[in-house]
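pinning this so it doesn't scroll away 📌
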Amino acid sequence: MRISSLISYAGGFKETAKEIQILEKAGLDVVWVPEAYSFDAPSAMGYLAANTERVTIASGILPIYSRTPSLLAMTAAGIDYLSDGRCMLGLGASGPQVIEGFHGVPYQAPVARIREIIEICRMVWRRERVQHLGRYYQIPLPQNLGTGLGKPLKIINHPVRDEIPIAVASLGDTSVEMTAELADAWLPAFYTADAAQAVWGDALAKGKAKRDPNRAPLEVFAGGAVAIGKGLEHLRNLSRPQTALYVGGMGARSKNFYNDIFTKSGYAREAKIIQDLYLAGDKKAAEAAIPDEYLAKNSLIGDEGFVRERVIALKESGVSSLNVGFLGNNFEERVASCEKLRNIVDSI
């Protein structure tokens, strides 16, 4: 199993790169570079490419609405060149709050758009002349929609690889099915080994049934916060504010994918209570309503035996790569957590 981790939105590129260099030596395999509405991800990815040797540098994620499909492909090809073939293009829809509120672009048809984007990106990397007449993207632009001067072009440079891995962050059944059919990797949220089959089993099975048999199996990234040692169970409570925010306050009451996942994971009663409390403004009570059992299942926090059991459970549920956050009072403790997890993973 590979070990991956998401860097902070707030950290400076230079400071973060130094930390990733050390984590790389401690056993980190993949670094996810977020974007949201912070600094752009590709700038940090390019900086990491120049300052690391082994880790895969993945966008985590680039929102599909803020760039054309061809630019997404060009960006990934450029970072793949800078890193000697270590790029992974992570794609996702983000949400209407960011896409319409920050980018000023309508948030429409995310699943269908990602499907077309994947096709176009792979066409670019194969150095084919890009010709795509989809519902949402028409390349070249038809004469009736522009000047009529557009012509099919292929990327000038020769990409390092004609297949750059594509990861998709998806939650709903339709998007997960599409991910299992077309993508190289999947980034779920609120994934627990015990509930994965109930939440996503049908969607994954439908997608894999349509998957090109020549494409490698879907890589699944999931895990949780990491702190390995005796007496650390209290650190699981650190995830209460974020869990309450997503389960209780993300999206609308009638449309909250995170609340749906929590419900399908066996916590229907708690999901409603958390949402009611959060939307009523009582965030602390919403945090307290999150079951301790869930926090344990959704983390790798505890003694070595507990963490080993959770890693095995994740692997048996279909997770092929861990996606984790290292806890600690300082960077040295976080590096130690990475080393301990690496040892556990390598021993399984």
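📌 and the second one:
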Amino acid sequence: MRILNGSGCLDALTAPGTAGLLDAFVTKTVTPLPREGNAPVRIAEVEHGMLNSIGLANPGADRFLGETLPRLAELEVPVWVSVGGFAAGDYADLCDRLDDRPEVDAIELNVSCPNVDEAPQGVGEVVAAARAATRKTLYTKLSPATADIAEVARAAQAAGTDGLTLVNTIRGLALDERTLRPKLSRAAGGFSGPALKPIALAAVHACYDATRLPIVGVGGVGSGRDVLEFVAAGAADVALGTVLFTDPAAPARIRAEFEQELDARGVYGPDNIFAAAHALEAVRAAPQPVNTSFAA
């Protein structure tokens, strides 16, 4: 069981100490061309979480590959690169450029922004194009804002994804108390934080049942108890998001709390609690997930 960060929730180059506490670092989403992102205000605190409307701001593939990626490699933390685009070809081109880069341990396909078709066939098209372009391990990050996330997960699996990241943010709105106008410049934004956890757990549970793929559970993870529940739901790994903004030492704290949760239950290692929320016969029949050994 590894602890990662959610894409966009940590800048490893400005906070290398926090990045060093992770088992892998996930980059902010990279797009083929540079993007300035949305106009301010782009982040707003709300009850039980936060909203963001960053708009995939990033320096683009050329600068990322030429400047950022070599610097990330110096941190000696496994790097997952999150990639995004506006057509299947964008994903394929990025994956092709990352394929021969030894600094990259895995690629995460961000198919859950509003500019990407989230119908199952759309996700399948993106994953298939990426799969044809790279031999790297592929994880597909899905949105909970879909009628049947398990169906989308099956489409990604059929197209060749190696794993799933569940879930991305869900759209929310916050109004200014005085003006009653939206706090964010583009009105709605992606909601994350503790209140997202039940939604993310439901997605992990459903997609594990549907695919048995390795899953990174993300959404409201802020304690060892949260990790315990995600692992029981079927997540082989977890990622931290909003908690990193208020507690940079969260990876170490949460890892210790998780060990305490296991000890309190007399459980030796996360493998012995994995998928406990599912019917025992179904878990016994399932293939074992990869990379589930607990990293200190």
